[in-house]
Amino acid sequence: MHLERSTYLTAPALAVLLAATPAAQAAEFSFAGPLDAYTLDPHAVSNTLVFAVLRNVYEPLVTRGKDLSMQPALATEWIQVDDTTWQFKLREGVTFSNGNDFSADDVVFSFERAKKGGIKSHLSEVASIEKVDDHTVRMKTSSADPILPNQIVNWFMMDSDWARENGAEEPGQADNSTESFANRNAVGTGAYVISDRDPGVKTVLTANKAWWGKMDGNVDKATFYVIANPSTRVSALISGEVDMIDGVPPQDAARIESADGLHVEATPDLRTVYLQPDVARDTLVHGGGVEGNPFKDPKVREAMKLAIDTGAIQKRIMRGYSTPVGLPIANEAEGSTPELNAPNQPDLERAKQLMEEAGHEDGFDVTLDCTNDRFMNDEATCLAIGSFLAQINIRVTPRAQATARWAQQINPPGYDTSLTMLSYSPYTYDAHQFLSGLATTRDASSGRGVFNIGGYSNPEVDQLTAEIGSETDAQKRTELLHQALGILKESNAYIPIHQLQILWGVRDGVDVVQLADLAYPLAWFKVSE
Amino acid sequence: MISYTVGRILQTLLVLLVISFIAFLLVATLGDPLGLLLPPEASLADRQELIARLGLDQPLLARFLHFLGGMMQGDFGLSYRTQEGVGAMIAARLPATIELAFASLLVTLFVGVPLGILCGVRPNAAISRVVMLVSIAGITLPNFVVGVLLIAIFSVQLGWFPSFGRGQTVDLGGWTTGLLTLSGWQAVILPAITLAAFQVTFVIRMLRTQLLEVGQSEHIRFARARGLSERRVWFSYAMRNALLPTITMLALQLGNVIAFSVVTEGVFAWPGLGSLFLQSVQSADIPVIAIYLIFVGAVFMIINLIVELSYPLLDPRLRRGRA
C-alpha cells in the first residue's frame, strides 16, 4: 500500500504523464467508511448506506444530478399522462453487465420484486405497473401523485433473467430459511461492477466498460474498506493507505487540514436533528416535579426553543460542521424557504419570561432520550441541550443509548419518552414525506403519523398534508407546503437543532462529489497523480 | 479415570447450556432489531408482520427452545443484518481471529519468556528493574490505547505497517490466510503486539515469581552444593519447575486472547470475530451476537476441559487420588 506512494517516476514515464491529459488517465481509488453496505440486494432494505454503494452498480429510472435536479437514468423521459398515471420512456440499447438487454420486462419484474422487500415503502403510492411496449412502461398511482419520480430515485432495476436463473426472484427476508443469491452478487446496468467483496471488510468496484453513460471521472477501480474505528480511519488517511475517508469526526478535522496533502470536504447532509417533546400524554412519563404535562403549553415549548443556542452547539460541539436550522427538515428539501428555515435566535430573558407566564418558573424534571452512535456527536449535543434547558429550570437528565435500544424505547407502539432528540432525512428531498410520516395525527390503520413520536396533532396540518399529497399544480403545492411548515414552526412542537454535514477527509489531487444523501458517486470522482 | 472424564464432560455441557440461555436472555433484551430492519416510513402493519415472522411475539422460553433446537441441528439461524447464515459468517471470520491469536502467542513466547527468565534469574540487575517498570504499562494501559499509540507511531509517523485490515489473503479451501503474503505479515504485527501486551506482562511476572520461588527451594540449593554451574542449575533444574505452571496458564489465557480480541480487532479493523461482534452489536443483530457469545463460551469451556483432563496424565498424584 505504501509502494504506490513511494514509486518514483523514471524520465520516460514522466514524459508520458506530462503529455497525457490528467483527467483521461485511468486511476485507482481507495476509500474507507465506518459501515458496510450490508447487503448487495437493492430491494431488501431501505438504507442510505446500501444505496450509497449500490448506486454505482444498479441504476434507477430517474436519478439526481450533481445539483440535486432530476436527471434521466434508465428512463429518458417521463410524463404524468393523467392524475394517476405516469409514463416512462426507457433508454434503448442498455445492457446489464452480464450482457442481457434491459427492457420493460425488467422494470415490471423489479417492481414486483421491490414490492416484496424492505424498499416497498418507496413504491407505496404505486398501485400497478404496465408494460406498454419494450421500452415504455406506465405506472398507476393509487391517488394523484405529482412527485412520483422523486420517490423512486432509489428503486433500482434488476435483470429479470439473471434473477430467475439464480433463484433470486425475491429479495432476502430476515426470516428466510435460505439466503438470497442477490445478497452477495450484483448485476446491474451501472458504471461499475463488483469484482471482489468480503462483507464487512472490503468491496472492490471495477469500471463497467459497457456502461451506456459517460464517465465524468477517471476512477476505473475503487476499493471501499470498512474501518469502524474513527481514529484508525483518520490514521489510514494520513498514512496514505486510502485516498478518502467518510465520517471524519469534527474534532479530527483540524488534524487532517493541517496534515500535508490532505483536506476536509464538507457538504450539508439532508439529515436534520430536532427535539420532540411528548405533547400527547397528560403527564410526564419520564420526569416529574410538576403537575400535568408542561409540554402541552406552547409557551414552555417556545421557551425551550429560545433557551437553546444552536449557534454555540455548531461552534463548540460540531466545530463549525453543522448548519443550524429553523425547521425540522433540511434547507435542500422542497418546502423549505430561507425565511422558514432561518435558525432560531436564542433569547434567554424572553425564555425565562415565557416560563414564568406559563407558571413554570420553578421548572420541572425530564429525561431527554438520545442516541450515542447514530450520528456525529449526538451524545455531546444531547448533553449541551441539557445544560441550555437547565438555564430555564428544566432539569434535564440526558439518557444516551445505543440506537437499537433507544429505538426500541421511543418507537411505536410504545412511544415511551417524554422528550427525545430525533433526526430525519427525507429521501424524496421533499417535506411532504416528513409531514405525512412524522407530523400528522397518529393513525395506526393508515400508517400516517406513525413516527410522530411526540404525538403532535393538528387538524389543520392533517388537512394540508392530505391536500399536498394530491395537489398536481407544482406552485400551489409548494405554497401549501410553506403553509403547513409555517404552522409546525409556530407550534414549536418540533424544536430544530441543526442540519448535519457530510465530512470527508480527502487527499489533495482527488476531486470528489458529495451529495446530500450520503452517496459515493464514483463515476464523478477524478484522481490526478 | 473414566468416570472422572465423563463427569467433567457432562459438567461442561451443562455449563454450555447455561451460557446459551444467558446469551439468549442478554440479547433478547438488547434492543430493537426492527429499527434497523424497517425503514422509518414503514407502517405499523409492516412492523406487526415482521414481528410475527421473526417470532418476536412468542414467549421467551418458546423462543429459546426454538433457538436451541435449531442449534442442535447445526442451524445457527440467519443474521438480521445481512440475511446470511450465521454459521457461515462465523466460519468466514474465524481464520482471521485464530491467526491473530496465534501471532500474539508467538509474540508472548519470544518476548515474554526470555524477559521473564531474565527478571527471575537476575532480579536485581538494572535491566530487570527497567523491564519490570515498563511491564506495569502493559498491565495498566488499556488495549485500545496501546493500539492507537502503535498506529500513531508505526503507521502514521514511520509508515512501516498498515493501520488497518489484514493485507493480501490467500484462500486455502475455506481457510483464508494472511500468513502467506508479505502484506499479510506486515498487517498482523501491530495487532498481535497490541493483543499480546497484556499476556507478555503476565508471563514476565509469572515466570519471575516462579523462578524466585524455585530459586529458594531445597533442590536448587543442593544442586548448587553439588557444584553444578549456575547455567545448569537454572536451565535444567529451576526452569523445569517454573515453566509448567506458566504454560498451563498460557493455555488457559488462549480463551482470553480470543475474547479480548474484540477491542484490538475494533481498533485495527481486523476482519475477525471481534469485528463481526462489534458490527452486530451496533445493529442489534441478535442471532449473530447470541452465537458469538455461545461460541466464545464453548472455546473457554473446551480449553478448560482439555487442561483438566490432562492434569491426571501430568500429575500421578491426581490419578491415584481418584482410583
- The tally of helices of chain A reads 16
CATH class of the domain at 93-272 in chain B: Mainly Alpha
**How would you describe the shape of chain B?**
globular
Q: Please bin the fraction of helical residues of chain A.
A: 25-40%
Task: Walk me through this protein's architecture.
The complex is a heterodimer of chains A (529) and B (323). Chain A is an alpha+beta fold. Chain A folds into 2 domains: 24-234 and 508-527, D-Maltodextrin-Binding Protein, domain 2, CATH 3.40.190.10; 270-499, Dipeptide-binding Protein, domain 3 (Roll). Chain A contains 16 helices and 20 strands. Chain A has helices spanning 3-6, 11-19, 48-54, 104-115, 148-151, 160-165, 230-238, 250-258, 298-307, 310-317, 348-357, 378-390, 403-410, 431-439, 459-470, 474-491; strands at 27-33, 62-64, 70-72, 75-82, 85-90, 126-133, 136-141, 192-198, 202-207, 219-226, 244-246, 262-277, 287-288, 322-324, 364-371, 394-401, 419-424, 495-507, 510-511, 526-527. In chain A, strands 1, 8, 9, 10, 11, 12, 13, 14, 15, 16, 17 and 18 form a 12-stranded mixed beta sheet that branches. In chain A, a hairpin with a 2-residue loop joins strand 4 and strand 5 (85-90). In chain A, helix 15 packs antiparallel against helix 16. Mean pLDDT of chain A is 87; it is low at 1-23. Chain B is an all-alpha fold and 323 residues long. Chain B has a domain at 93-272: MetI-like (MetI-like fold, Orthogonal Bundle), CATH 1.10.3720. Chain B has helices at residues 2-28, 34-37, 44-54, 60-72, 86-121, 126-140, 143-157, 182-216, 218-225, 230-268, 273-282, 286-314, 316-322, and strands spanning 170-172, 175-177. Chain B is globular and about 85 Å long. Chains A and B meet through helix 7 and helix 13 of A and helix 2, helix 3, helix 7, helix 10 and helix 11 of B.
